[in-house]
Amino acid sequence: MTEIYSSAQAAEMLGVSPNTLRTWKARKSELLLEGQHWITQDGQTYWTQIGVETLQHLRGESPIDSDPKRQPIQDESPSVAARYEDLIDAVADALTPTLLNRLDNAVMGRVKRAVSTPMSATERVTLLTSLGLKPASPELLLQQSSTNYLPEGE
Q1: Taking the alpha carbons of 8, 10, 16, 19 in that order, is the dihedral positive or negative?
Q2: Mean pLDDT across the chain
Q3: pLDDT tens across 67-105, in order?
Q4: Is 7 in contact with 46 (CB distance < 8 Å)?
Q5: Residues 6+ apart with CB under 8 A from 122
Q6: Residue in 70, 68, 59, 73 with CA at minimum distance from that of residue 16
């Protein structure tokens, strides 16, 4: 994982004030890219190792390493979805049980209401057939039992 530094830490490493870093970040926005040189978390700016090296270059202390492995190309920075993938997964994991439970309750409530509505034997057969079900036995169907149905093919 890439090392990150608070603005105070980066400023101390460079021998400048945190205000100077904010000024450089604002004035050199074409060189200091979010997600590559710095990130914001909880309202605070944190600098990556390559960001600190870029700041050193801006200060004139050392040239930026010309090794392409050390300078990620902007196109290689993670997409928004990739950057937030863990958050998306956590939200989905948290919501899924609740949504499934609500969906199950809604569907079962409607099924119970539909089954409790008086129907003729012909209406029940038509409904079951449209749902891909068939009665377990005609005698049970005629007795208006709504619990003895089997899926087609069983």
Answers
A1: negative
A2: 75
A3: 444 444 444 456 666 777 777 778 888 888 888 888 888
A4: yes
A5: none
A6: 59
Helix (H) or strand (E) holding 47: strand 44-48
Residue 138, judged by CB atoms within 10 A of its CB (0-12, 13-18, 19+), counts as: exposed
Contacts of 64 (CB under 8 A, 6+ apart): 53, 54, 57, 70, 71
pLDDT tens figures, 4-61: 899 999 999 888 988 988 888 888 888 888 888 888 888 889 999 888 888 888 877 5
At 126, list the tokens. 């038509």
Using alpha carbons, select from 67, 65, 68 the residue that is nearest to residue 53: 65
Q: Where are the alpha helices (DSSP H) in the chain?
A: 7-14, 18-27, 49-59, 80-83, 85-116, 121-130, 138-142
Cα–Cα distance for residue pair 57/40, rounded to 1 Å: 22
State in Å, rounded, how far the first CA of the chain is from the last one.
55
- In this structure, what token pair is assigned to residue 35? 């997600």
- pTM of the predicted structure, to 2 decimals: 0.39
Burial class (CB in 10 A: 0-12, 13-18, 19+), 52: buried
